[in-house]
Amino acid sequence: MMSHSKIKTAFFSAGCFWGVEDAFQKIPGVIDAVSGYSGGHTKHPTYDEVCDGHTGHAETVKIIYDPEKVSYETLLELFWKIHDPTQVNRQGQDIGSQYRSVIFYSSPEDKDASEKSKQGIEASGKYDAPVATEIVPAEVFYEAEAHHQDYVKKTGRGVCHIAE
Question: How far is 29 from 160, CA to CA, in rounded Å?
């Protein structure tokens, strides 16, 4: 049986949370990925409020993982792979601050790993534009409504912008 003290949490915003959640759920060592909202000023926002762009929240996925099976660095690699971190307040056809690219770190180690990873992406020459991803302390995470959880699995629909 796994000890709960070994479980860690990461928070990533990379556009529409349906596809981000689905991508992370496929990674061995990820126990769960939960769609929600973070980084805003409204308490207990709804999807409609977040989509209106007045709450300050980004669509965020909470990743619950076993660090003995998957590293934070591996999660970061997927984060960079599944979206365009140079886009400001959008991903693909989804436009608005709720779709911004953000890493919400939970510890000094995660902050350092995130910054090092971002520097590596910037130095790679992969993008012509600057990397716009914010790296900020984790804040309150509000779980999205039930119909948003496991959306891709439930509906069989494709994902908006995810490049896999």
Answer: 25
Model pLDDT, residue 1: 45
Q: What is the mean pLDDT of residues 127-153?
A: 87
Residue 164: the pLDDT is 47
Evaluate if residue 95 carries a pLDDT over 80. yes
Is the residue at 161 inside a domain?
no
Ramachandran region, residue 125 (left: φ > 0; alpha: ψ -120 to 50; beta: rest): left
Contact 110, 72 (CB under 8 A): yes
Whole-number pLDDT of residue 93: 86
CATH code, 74: 3.30.1060.10
**Is 16 assigned a catalytic role?**
yes
Tally of structural domains, the chain: 1
- What gap in Å lies between CA 141 and CA 118, rounded to an integer? 23
Q: Which of 16, 23, 50, 82 is catalytic?
A: 16
Instruction: Report yes or no on 46 lying in a domain.
Output: yes
With respect to residue 111, please indicate whether it lies within any of the assigned structural domains. Answer: yes
The pair of structure tokens assigned to 121 is 């992406």
**pLDDT of 153 over the 90 cut:** no
Domain assignment of residue 93, given as a range: 4-154
